[in-house]
Amino acid sequence: MDRRTLLRATVAGAGGLALPFTAWPAAYAAPAQNATGPYGALRAADANGIQLPAGFTSQVVARSRQTVPGTSYVWHDAPDGGAVIPNGTGWVYVSNSEVSSSAGGGASRLVFNASGQVTGASRILSGTNQNCAGGKTPWNTWLSCEETSTGRVWETYPLGGSAVVRPAMGRFKHEAAAADPVRQVIYLTEDETNGKFYRFIPATWGNLSAGTLQVMRAGSATSGSFTWADVPDPDGSPTATRNQVSGAKSFNGGEGCHYADNTVWFTTKGDNRVWQVNLATSTYELAYDDNLVSPGTAPLTGVDNVTGTASGDLYVAEDGGSMDICLITPDDKISVFLRVTGQGSSEITGPAFTPAGNRLYFSSQRGTSGASSGGITYCVTGPFR
């Protein structure tokens, strides 16, 4: 019996609580190991240079510095973190631009109808710096995070409204954000070699204008228990937030962040790891480590953005590596889901699924040119489980 099944049996025996199988991704018996993926082997690259399993197809939906087809809007440079937000008639895909304010930093949106056709595109945030990743909220806003030493979180409104800076969420080298509606907090990663893992507790859930910033405290091991401690000065001046709390646990280059079912996962690019934080038990462990993979070589390097599906699968994108999006299943197996060919000087960013779960959006930040002006945003459609 794997640990996930054991936990289900334990809970059911203790309280007679019946939960669906997909409600237990927190029970991963980390770290993941190599295996054949649920969709089989990759086929030869398609016309877009993407290798996919049988039954899946790709299309280009936008290119940097080119007008988005069907609109008059020119897509931004260096597309990075992204998310899909339903709008009642279809959905919106939001995407950050990881360039300076003078070069057009901020975020944009693509609007799709129920058939997946682009019906609009526009800017939702301007004048900001190095907007790398971020995260969506349960109230359908997009948190766009600045990856600078005094970076801020901007709350944007893809369904309409003006962006607002959220200084209470701290000033540091922000990377990604993930909302936890159960505990009513936002988790935040920090892209520093000694970065920290934070959570923001809003004074009122749904309003990020005020609240408390906390940092994880834990030992130096790759698993164990943790606590939270208040950050005395979220403004990070003159002392950086990561240096304010004794015993705060360091992580090597925090990147993507994803919450589901009492668990939050986040990635660290500096050591090619995926961390799993079990919120119900206040413990943490490794969901993936490229030094602990067998048999064969590790499929996932340059670990970066992460998202998940209702089935409990995690999709983790590479910054460099083989330009893969890898899949980690609930039974701790890892495989390559797709590979972008001919773009070795780029990185994969912004993976996000539509509400129906049958379309995956993502970008190649620098495309075939290796420059910020060469970004390409894709959609992959197919029989996702």
Automatic annotation (TrEMBL):
This protein's UniProt keywords: Signal
Statement: the UniProt record of this protein carries the keyword Signal: yes
InterPro entries per UniProt: PhoX, TAT_signal, WD40
Record's keyword annotation contains Coiled coil: no
Signal peptide interval: 1-29
Top-level taxon in the UniProt lineage: Bacteria
PANTHER family to which the protein is assigned, alphabetical: DUF839 DOMAIN-CONTAINING PROTEIN, SLR8030 PROTEIN
Annotated protein name in UniProt: DUF839 domain-containing protein
Lineage, opening ranks: Bacteria, Bacillati, Actinomycetota, Actinomycetes, Micromonosporales
